[in-house]
Amino acid sequence: MLRRPALALLALFSSITASLATGEIESLITDADRERLGSFERAKEQALGEAEGADSQTALAALRKAASAEALPFADFDLTGDWQCRTLKAGGLAKLVVYGWFDCRVTDDGSGWRLEKLTGSQRTVGRFFTDSDTRLTYLGGFFVAGDAAPAYGAGIDSDQVGYAVRTGPESWQIEFPLPRYESTFDILELRR
Protein backbone atom coordinates (compact mmCIF):
# COMPACT_ATOMS: atom_id res chain seq x y z
CA MET A 1 0.00 0.00 0.00
CA LEU A 2 1.34 3.44 -0.93
CA ARG A 3 1.74 6.05 1.79
CA ARG A 4 0.71 9.69 1.38
CA PRO A 5 4.19 11.00 0.45
CA ALA A 6 4.50 8.28 -2.17
CA LEU A 7 1.04 9.11 -3.53
CA ALA A 8 1.92 12.80 -3.63
CA LEU A 9 5.13 12.04 -5.52
CA LEU A 10 3.24 9.80 -7.92
CA ALA A 11 0.67 12.55 -8.56
CA LEU A 12 3.43 15.14 -9.04
CA PHE A 13 5.33 12.86 -11.44
CA SER A 14 2.14 12.16 -13.41
CA SER A 15 1.42 15.89 -13.82
CA ILE A 16 5.03 16.60 -14.87
CA THR A 17 4.96 13.72 -17.36
CA ALA A 18 1.67 14.98 -18.80
CA SER A 19 3.02 18.52 -19.21
CA LEU A 20 6.18 17.23 -20.90
CA ALA A 21 4.13 15.05 -23.23
CA THR A 22 2.21 18.07 -24.54
CA GLY A 23 5.12 20.47 -24.16
CA GLU A 24 5.42 24.18 -24.73
CA ILE A 25 5.56 23.69 -28.50
CA GLU A 26 1.90 22.65 -28.53
CA SER A 27 0.85 26.12 -27.43
CA LEU A 28 3.14 27.83 -29.97
CA ILE A 29 3.04 25.93 -33.27
CA THR A 30 0.57 27.22 -35.84
CA ASP A 31 -1.94 25.00 -37.64
CA ALA A 32 -0.22 25.79 -40.94
CA ASP A 33 3.10 24.55 -39.56
CA ARG A 34 1.51 21.40 -38.16
CA GLU A 35 0.31 20.72 -41.69
CA ARG A 36 3.78 21.35 -43.13
CA LEU A 37 5.32 18.90 -40.66
CA GLY A 38 2.58 16.43 -41.56
CA SER A 39 3.72 16.71 -45.20
CA PHE A 40 7.42 16.36 -44.31
CA GLU A 41 8.16 13.02 -46.03
CA ARG A 42 6.06 13.81 -49.11
CA ALA A 43 7.71 17.23 -49.54
CA LYS A 44 11.20 15.76 -49.12
CA GLU A 45 10.56 13.00 -51.65
CA GLN A 46 9.05 15.44 -54.15
CA ALA A 47 11.95 17.90 -53.79
CA LEU A 48 14.58 15.20 -54.18
CA GLY A 49 12.85 14.01 -57.34
CA GLU A 50 12.74 17.55 -58.76
CA ALA A 51 16.41 18.11 -57.89
CA GLU A 52 17.56 15.01 -59.80
CA GLY A 53 17.38 17.06 -62.99
CA ALA A 54 19.84 19.67 -61.69
CA ASP A 55 22.81 20.56 -63.88
CA SER A 56 25.44 20.60 -61.12
CA GLN A 57 26.60 17.16 -60.05
CA THR A 58 28.48 18.76 -57.15
CA ALA A 59 25.29 20.37 -55.84
CA LEU A 60 23.36 17.15 -56.37
CA ALA A 61 25.99 15.17 -54.42
CA ALA A 62 25.76 17.68 -51.54
CA LEU A 63 21.95 17.34 -51.47
CA ARG A 64 22.04 13.54 -51.60
CA LYS A 65 24.54 13.44 -48.74
CA ALA A 66 22.50 15.82 -46.57
CA ALA A 67 19.17 14.15 -47.36
CA SER A 68 20.45 10.67 -46.52
CA ALA A 69 22.33 11.59 -43.33
CA GLU A 70 21.71 9.27 -40.39
CA ALA A 71 20.09 11.00 -37.41
CA LEU A 72 22.40 10.62 -34.40
CA PRO A 73 21.37 11.14 -30.74
CA PHE A 74 21.58 14.67 -29.34
CA ALA A 75 22.65 13.36 -25.92
CA ASP A 76 25.93 14.99 -24.83
CA PHE A 77 25.90 17.23 -27.93
CA ASP A 78 26.13 20.95 -27.23
CA LEU A 79 24.66 23.13 -29.98
CA THR A 80 25.85 26.36 -28.39
CA GLY A 81 28.54 28.36 -30.13
CA ASP A 82 29.46 29.60 -33.58
CA TRP A 83 28.74 27.53 -36.68
CA GLN A 84 29.23 27.76 -40.41
CA CYS A 85 25.90 27.26 -42.15
CA ARG A 86 24.63 26.92 -45.69
CA THR A 87 21.24 26.40 -47.26
CA LEU A 88 20.34 23.80 -49.87
CA LYS A 89 17.07 24.56 -51.69
CA ALA A 90 15.51 21.64 -53.57
CA GLY A 91 12.53 21.69 -55.91
CA GLY A 92 10.33 24.65 -56.67
CA LEU A 93 11.51 27.61 -58.79
CA ALA A 94 14.96 26.15 -59.37
CA LYS A 95 15.61 22.43 -59.29
CA LEU A 96 18.47 22.85 -56.84
CA VAL A 97 20.47 25.70 -55.33
CA VAL A 98 23.34 25.21 -52.88
CA TYR A 99 24.48 28.46 -51.27
CA GLY A 100 27.91 29.21 -49.86
CA TRP A 101 28.80 29.05 -46.18
CA PHE A 102 27.66 31.82 -43.82
CA ASP A 103 27.78 32.41 -40.05
CA CYS A 104 25.26 31.09 -37.56
CA ARG A 105 25.23 31.13 -33.77
CA VAL A 106 23.39 29.04 -31.21
CA THR A 107 22.90 30.36 -27.68
CA ASP A 108 21.14 28.99 -24.63
CA ASP A 109 19.01 31.66 -22.98
CA GLY A 110 17.97 29.42 -20.09
CA SER A 111 14.80 28.25 -21.81
CA GLY A 112 16.58 26.28 -24.51
CA TRP A 113 18.68 26.59 -27.62
CA ARG A 114 18.18 29.61 -29.89
CA LEU A 115 19.55 29.82 -33.46
CA GLU A 116 20.42 33.00 -35.33
CA LYS A 117 21.77 33.12 -38.89
CA LEU A 118 24.11 36.12 -38.73
CA THR A 119 25.25 36.65 -42.32
CA GLY A 120 23.83 36.27 -45.81
CA SER A 121 20.76 37.97 -47.25
CA GLN A 122 18.24 35.35 -46.09
CA ARG A 123 18.19 34.98 -42.30
CA THR A 124 16.42 33.01 -39.61
CA VAL A 125 16.07 33.22 -35.85
CA GLY A 126 14.23 30.70 -33.70
CA ARG A 127 14.11 28.08 -30.97
CA PHE A 128 14.31 24.31 -30.67
CA PHE A 129 11.97 21.88 -28.94
CA THR A 130 12.73 18.22 -28.23
CA ASP A 131 10.82 15.82 -30.48
CA SER A 132 12.82 12.66 -29.72
CA ASP A 133 16.36 11.55 -28.80
CA THR A 134 17.42 12.12 -32.41
CA ARG A 135 15.20 14.98 -33.55
CA LEU A 136 14.38 18.53 -32.49
CA THR A 137 11.62 20.73 -33.87
CA TYR A 138 12.64 24.23 -34.96
CA LEU A 139 10.19 27.14 -34.88
CA GLY A 140 11.66 30.28 -36.37
CA GLY A 141 11.14 33.48 -38.26
CA PHE A 142 12.48 34.16 -41.76
CA PHE A 143 13.66 37.66 -42.63
CA VAL A 144 15.93 39.50 -45.04
CA ALA A 145 19.14 41.17 -43.83
CA GLY A 146 18.42 44.75 -42.79
CA ASP A 147 14.86 43.98 -41.68
CA ALA A 148 13.81 43.32 -38.10
CA ALA A 149 13.68 39.64 -37.14
CA PRO A 150 10.05 38.57 -36.70
CA ALA A 151 8.91 36.44 -33.79
CA TYR A 152 7.59 33.00 -34.63
CA GLY A 153 3.83 33.23 -35.12
CA ALA A 154 4.00 36.63 -36.84
CA GLY A 155 2.47 35.18 -40.01
CA ILE A 156 2.75 32.68 -42.84
CA ASP A 157 5.21 34.84 -44.77
CA SER A 158 7.84 34.62 -42.04
CA ASP A 159 7.05 31.51 -39.97
CA GLN A 160 9.45 28.60 -40.39
CA VAL A 161 9.19 25.05 -39.14
CA GLY A 162 11.55 22.12 -39.53
CA TYR A 163 13.22 19.14 -37.94
CA ALA A 164 16.82 19.35 -36.72
CA VAL A 165 18.97 16.23 -36.75
CA ARG A 166 22.55 15.64 -35.67
CA THR A 167 24.61 14.28 -38.56
CA GLY A 168 28.11 13.91 -37.11
CA PRO A 169 30.45 14.75 -34.23
CA GLU A 170 30.53 18.44 -35.28
CA SER A 171 27.60 18.75 -37.68
CA TRP A 172 23.83 18.92 -37.75
CA GLN A 173 21.08 20.27 -39.98
CA ILE A 174 17.54 21.59 -40.06
CA GLU A 175 15.18 20.26 -42.72
CA PHE A 176 12.32 22.58 -43.72
CA PRO A 177 9.31 21.09 -45.56
CA LEU A 178 7.39 23.38 -47.90
CA PRO A 179 9.10 26.69 -47.11
CA ARG A 180 7.08 29.77 -48.02
CA TYR A 181 9.39 30.94 -50.81
CA GLU A 182 11.27 29.51 -53.79
CA SER A 183 11.59 25.80 -53.01
CA THR A 184 9.82 22.61 -51.96
CA PHE A 185 12.31 21.54 -49.29
CA ASP A 186 15.26 23.32 -47.67
CA ILE A 187 18.15 21.98 -45.63
CA LEU A 188 20.23 24.29 -43.46
CA GLU A 189 23.54 22.47 -42.84
CA LEU A 190 25.69 23.50 -39.86
CA ARG A 191 29.31 22.59 -39.15
CA ARG A 192 32.00 23.80 -36.74
Task: Summarize this structure as a short list of keywords or feature phrases.
8-stranded antiparallel barrel
Descriptive overview:
With 192 residues, this protein is α+β, with helices and mostly antiparallel strands. The protein is 28% helix and 36% strand. It has an eight-stranded antiparallel β-barrel with strand order 1-3-4-5-6-7-8-9. Strand 7 and strand 8 form a beta hairpin. The N terminus is likely disordered.
Name the beta content range. 35-45%
Described by strand count, sense and barrel closure, the largest sheet is: 8 strands, antiparallel, barrel
Helix content: 25-40%
Task: Indicate the structural class.
Answer: alpha+beta
Query: What separation lies between the terminal Cα atoms?
Result: 54 Å
Tally of helical runs? 5
Radius of gyration: 18 Å
Total strand segments: 9
Uncertain residue ranges: 1-22
* Helix and strand pattern: HHHHHEEEEEEEEE
Strand order within the widest sheet? 1-3-4-5-6-7-8-9
Shape by Cα distribution: globular
What average pLDDT do the residues reach? 90
What would you say about this model in short?
It is built from 5 helices and 9 strands. With 192 residues, it is α+β, with helices and mostly antiparallel strands.
Summarize the topology.
Blueprint: H1 4-22, H2 25-28, H3 31-38, H4 40-51, H5 57-67, E1 81-90, E2 96-98, E3 102-108, E4 113-117, E5 122-132, E6 135-144, E7 159-168, E8 171-177, E9 185-191
Antiparallel strand pairs: 1-2, 1-3, 1-9, 3-4, 4-5, 5-6, 6-7, 7-8, 8-9
